[in-house]
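Explain this record to help learners:
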Amino acid sequence: MDVLEGCRAFVGVSEYGGFSQAAAAARLPQSVISRRVAALEKHLGERLFERTSRSVTLTPFGADMLPSAKRLTRLADDLQHDAERARRRPFRLAVPDTCGTADLARLEAGARHEGVYLDLVPAGPAERAELARALAVRAALIAVPPDQGVWAVTLGLAGTTEPATDVLHLESLRPGRSRATARGRVVWVQPEDDVPHVRDRLTRVRDAVALKPAQVAVAATLTTALAEVLGSSDLLLCSPSQAAELGLVWRPIGEVQLARGYSVSALAGTDTERLRGPLRPLIARCLGAER
């Protein structure tokens, strides 16, 4: 039998003075309350109530058992309350600071439907890894090569004008001979992509197509990089979704396929499974990932 539900029925009848009153308070049929009390009496081996047509009173055994039954129901209520509070404890997650406010809000709202209350901490790649190492967050989305990650985000080049081609080749950015074009167009790398599997591959292609070293530059912030692009014909290395958010025109790179890769760093395996499982599509949407 369910001892806890039997005790709830027992306590209810004793407090409300009758089976019908206890059933009404619990919003249950009277027959259910009666069966639960009868089952508890059978389990304990003694009658808890003296029943007449006019009244229900505790037996001496019932009076002795009532304090314990009340303690059990209170403990069960406390357990349920603590469980609900634990479920609502914020899950502190370090995420890329390239994620837009609306995307982060959708991730947080979607996670709540999965019973997860996220506390999102936007940060750069190095800071996210350090937050995970220092246990300052429960988990972090860390930068990894795309073939090693859970999520992959395609990168390309974005600028303020519509290119004449569907693909942008880095070799088309070679400086001209005139003073106006001697500088050459610059590809600005934002801090999120200042990681070896993106930056180093891009600079190798830069050298292979004979661009100037300064034509691939790492900006201190995304804001700085965007300001350079908005004020010139320079280009920003970014994802399609990020380009759309920033109001830029995006094209893939002709010579190389670049992508951000993300994996999970978490102390608890259950946290990793949660992020890679139920929350995986929500995180993908936030990152602008294809998977």
In short: DSSP finds eleven helices and eleven strands in the chain.
